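Supplementary Methods. Inverse-folding protocol.

Structures were first reduced to a discrete structure-token string of length 94. This string, shown here, constituted the complete conditioning input.
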């Protein structure tokens, strides 16, 4: 099965733990015999994919837009259920 793991638009410029998780999931899917490709919004051509995993963990509106692209392409999708609010300030260590 050909599976797209759709990442946030800035995944190459600002890699993080979410990207590590997506890469690990892609590797596990490949080990099971699937063709798993990491794509970001600028590469969002879903032709030929049997399934998409919307893996955008930062902004709900981006994940929503990516899900709409899946619907428009007729590709079943799963919204990855983890969210991290980048706008929330992390207090400095004491």
């Amino acid at each position: 099965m050909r599976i797209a793991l759709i990442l946030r638009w800035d995944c190459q410029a600002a890699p993080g733990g979410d990207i590590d998780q997506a890469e690990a999931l892609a590797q596990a899917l490949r080990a099971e015999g699937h063709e798993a490709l990491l794509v970001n919004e600028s590469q969002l051509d879903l032709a030929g994919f049997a399934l998409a995993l919307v893996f955008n963990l930062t902004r709900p509106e981006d994940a929503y837009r990516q899900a709409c692209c899946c619907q428009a392409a007729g590709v079943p999708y799963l919204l990855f259920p983890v969210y991290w609010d980048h706008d929330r300030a992390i207090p400095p260590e004491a």
